[in-house]
Write a structure and sequence with these properties.
Length: about 525
Amino acid sequence: MAEHTLQSIAFPTLDEAQIARLSECTAAVPRTFQDGQTLFAVGERNMKFFVVKSGEVEIVDYSGDEPKTLTVHRKGQFTGDVSHLTGTPAVVSAIARGPCEVVEISRDALRRVLNQCPDLSDVILQAFIARRQLLRQSADFTGLRVIGSRYSADTLRIRDFLAKNRVLFTWVDVETDPEVDRLLKQFGITEADTPVVACGHRLMLRNPSNGQLADTIGIRQPLEKTVYDLAVVGAGPAGLAAAVYGASEGLGTVVLEQTGPGGQAGSSMRIENYLGFPTGLTGSDLAGRAVLQANKFGAHLSVPTPVNRLEFDKAYPVLRLEGGDTVAAKCLLIASGAEYRRLGVEGCERYEGTGVYYAATPSEAQMCRGALVVLVGGGNSAGQAAVFLAGHARKVLLLIRGHDLYKNMSSYLARRIEQSANIELLCNATIRRMYGDGHLTAVEIVNNKTGEERTVETPAVFSFIGAVPRTDWLPAEIERDAKPGAGKVAALDRSAAAVSAGDQPPRRVCRGGCARCLRQARCLGRGRGRDGSPVCA
């Protein structure tokens, strides 16, 4: 999308008829602000949505060393971005410049507009998405600062968590960034104190857990003390799709995710065989749009919220969360995804996060620019990662155990790899051991057919050798299959109402015999038989 086109989408001007229509759709409140008054401030949650009727509203970024004006809204323009839907804190401040008349709309009222006024919904949603995209692309927008070493597993964990949850941040690598000495002195810390998270001139956290980080920056949504109609465990594509379908039918829907939306697909840098996207899209963009869609219909997404176990209380499944809280629902969908398989070679565990990686995203690519990297795996995930890394690394060694790249990989990807000058395919090859000093420096590769060995100096190994279902938290009442994939039926406790999707083996078992309950979301918890299980409406 051209820059000027993205700008025009991000900052449209509503005409008088559209403003009147907006007022008709919801309870809009006229407000007046004087010069210098704040309409909303950075960090504020549940901020109002404003349409300018006269005067000007300046949007200011305070996350960097000095305040910066990002834009100025004038008559017919409106404030806000995706934070209005996700419930996360504002990343900028809005300040009146001169006397200013606006129309004020609450977050709940804005959601009603987006659901009931499709003509306005298209304009506003597209603007919200484009504004966040402009901030993400801008070299002048700092957001949070993560200061830490590329050789620190905790630094990678924090960066990965923020990236998966689409939080705007800048990474300051203590190994290479020229500004690091100034910043360490500014915050009164040493390199030994890193990783740290800062915002503006304020040091926020030192090596926080994902939960501490989420609570401090305000991205974890509090859970209601209620029985939800639908609870979804896992926010991969399957879980998010269920949340959209359930919430759009008016069901009280909660999604519990332990790390960040998107699942395995969320870490893909290019998905080209997904229906409806002929030019492809990143997994992060797919997840981001799905989260907005679910939030638009009122689904409640809580991250990070690990589920420790599932119990049954009379007619309802009860989820026990890390920390002791519980969530009860009339119907449960299990979409908790899969765990990546480990290579299981000498030294692998020692270098996880400091040279061994299970995803190839911009976070990892930044650390291997101009280097030789090794990638293990022969499926589509490995192929997509190899092509992406080839755009950053000097060379990519792609190792497969067999002799045929086309056996488990889509033809278009295999051909692209063959045509890439800096991707070298090593067939019948595996890694025997890894070496390093605090971080990975080399690997020993062996040809399983000839026995030939070679040692390769590399800062990074990427492993894409499959995954196993994340089902260790499920009780014995639910039968499991060792192989991921839909289509397997589970035997459930007689009082349970459970479904599975995505990488989880079980499928829906409905006492009413309805296999389409989840898709159409018409009977999830609305009608129940005498034994407490859901029945069709």
